[in-house]
Design brief:
The chain has one domain. Helix 4 packs across helix 7, helix 6 packs across helix 7 and helix 6 crosses helix 8. With 193 residues, the protein is mainly α. The longest helix is centred in the C-terminal third of the chain and has 36 residues. The two termini are 33 Å apart. It is built from nine helices and no strands.
Length: 193
């Protein structure tokens, strides 16, 4: 199963449509989609390491734009779409406490949680719901998402060949660890929210 998914992702990563797919996933992940853009960013940098910084920039910009969509969901559509999404991910009962936490620690919440595997869509929707300052939201999102994606691109650019050999030699273990990390991100969000 992991081998087919890995091969498909590598093939898509090397295709001319790769930057558009990366942008779409980055945008969607920041507003409603559960899969992080790293699943495209990593193989794309492995396929074309000379484009690592371009791919990180695409991820960052699309993620912030998707974050604005998530912010709008929280600010204008929370009672319908926003609440449905939050319930889908199992966080509806914690949103009011999270909104109160924003009053004191909004900057740190965006900076720290935007860099971690905690789903960024939860931060974007909660930011809109809390009425967090939009200019600060965009600025902090650019910093935290850019730091994350440029770090991933830099590591893959620098150590891509040995990492690729390691990944391909241990594909099942890497796939399981990736799934566990994704689930752990949601679980951590549930505990921290």
């Amino acid at each position: 199963m992991f081998k087919r998914l890995y091969d498909w992702t590598l093939a898509l990563s090397a295709s001319p449509r790769a930057p558009q797919a990366l942008a779409a996933i980055s945008f969607a992940e920041s507003s409603f989609f559960p899969v992080p853009p790293d699943v495209m960013l990593v193989p794309m940098v492995m396929a074309k390491p000379e484009r690592a910084w371009n791919y990180a920039l695409v991820c960052t910009i699309a993620s912030v734009l998707g974050g604005l969509a998530g912010y709008a969901i929280g600010a204008m559509l929370y009672d319908t779409l926003g609440l449905w999404l939050i319930r889908l991910y199992g966080y509806a009962d914690k949103m009011e406490a999270f909104r109160a936490l924003y009053q004191q620690h909004g900057h740190w919440i965006i900076l720290i949680k935007g860099f971690t595997p905690i789903p960024f869509k939860l931060i974007t929707i909660a930011s809109g719901l809390a009425g967090y300052d939009l200019v600060w939201f965009v600025l902090l999102s650019l910093i935290t998402r850019g730091a994350r994606f440029f770090l991933v691109a830099g590591v893959m650019n620098r150590f891509g060949a040995p990492l690729r050999r390691f990944i391909e030699a241990n594909l099942t273990a890497v796939g399981i660890i990736s799934l566990v990390a994704l689930v752990a991100g949601f679980a951590a969000a549930k505990l921290l929210f």
